[in-house]
Amino acid sequence: MAIEVTRTYVGSIQNQQQVRDDLDSLGGSASKIWNSARWTADRIWNATGEIPDEGTLKAYMKNQPCWKDLNAQSSQKVIEELSDAFQSWFDLRQTDDEANPPGYRKHGDTRPKSTVTFKADGFKHDPENNRVRLSKGSNLKEHWSDFILCEYQTRPDVDLSEVNKVQNVRAVWNGDEWELHFVCKVVLETNDAAGDGVAGIDLGITNIATVAFPDEYVLYPGNLLKQDKHYFTRAAYETAGENGPSEKSMWARRKLAERETHFYHVLTDTIITECVERDVGTLAVSWPEDVRKSDWGKTGNKKLHSWAFDRLYQYLEYKGEIRGVEVLKENEWNTSKTCSRCGDDTTSNRVERGLYVCSSCELVANADCNGAENMRRSCGGDCW
């Protein structure tokens, strides 16, 4: 069976010197549009007590001179990103009163190079010659046929001429140079069911994932993520400018995001591979219903907001689908305090962080392993 999935492939620009000035102009214009829209939102917010929605901002910004610095769809994407940033802030404010709204993209008198997204009518792709033509806005064109022609190179195992469809192209400043991100629709062949076995996963913060296989428990700690977050967050804070993020600060943020993405991909690849090798065809993933709506205190709320349980589930789901592992989302309610052996759900069984002792059957277990075993049992996993 074949499925269609979305993939992002990174291409290095081979003619960097020829196109850098033009891309710098577009990146600066994207920041200008963001800042103008952010200022407009702030003004309306102060006057009405409400932040304007995406449609209102687009309607206003279309009449601003900077709007035509970019292709129309590229300018619209900047507003969509700002709207998403405000929505994320709203969600975080439910549990963290000190959360800050999205800021301005400015460092002193200069603007950082923002990512520019080119949608359907903003690019023309020539995969046979590894070239892509990117559109400028009318303000930056010297003549009607003025555009940016980028020559790119992807990984040896990536051939963009074979993808079903390139949805959009993103020009991204990585701190040293510009690179291209191709967001593509790809058709993949899926494997038959990996087996009849059932496994369960307990997702957490200290242990990112604890997996209960039919014959073994495996814990995946999150120490590396914590170290990266501490180092790069500190680097971003120490190099932040007075009027917005500096280039160094933005580099630190990007680097952290890249390392987190790599970690989650490797982790989920490893878990799905383990399932296939152990003939596990069903994987039950703990899903903390409404957990972000609760108040866990200042420190707890910040940790919870950075907990990527939804992202991990998405990665597991599509990787599992390709390799014949059905990934199910199961409510984790009471799994942390319920004994996986006898079913006793006395709250005091959870003695302390990491330790579970059942007052009925005297089971002594790692608390995360006990939770993962409950997830495995929820989908028909047999007792040991």
Automatic annotation (TrEMBL):
Q: Which residues form the Cas12f1-like TNB domain?
A: 309-374
Carries keyword DNA-binding?
Answer: yes
Q: Locate the Probable transposase IS891/IS1136/IS1341 domain: which residues? A: 181-291
Which GO terms of type biological process are on file? DNA recombination; transposition
InterPro entries, per the entry: Cas12f1-like_TNB (IPR010095), RNA-guided_DNA_endo/Transpos (IPR051399), Transposase (IPR001959)
Give a yes or no for keyword GTP-binding in this entry. Answer: no
Please give the Gene Ontology molecular function terms for this protein.
DNA binding
Q: Which UniProt keywords apply?
A: DNA recombination, DNA-binding, Transposition
Q: Which family does it belong to?
A: In the N-terminal section; belongs to the transposase 2 family.
Name of the protein in its database record: Transposase
Which lineage do the record's taxonomy fields give for this organism?
Archaea, Methanobacteriati, Methanobacteriota, Stenosarchaea group, Halobacteria
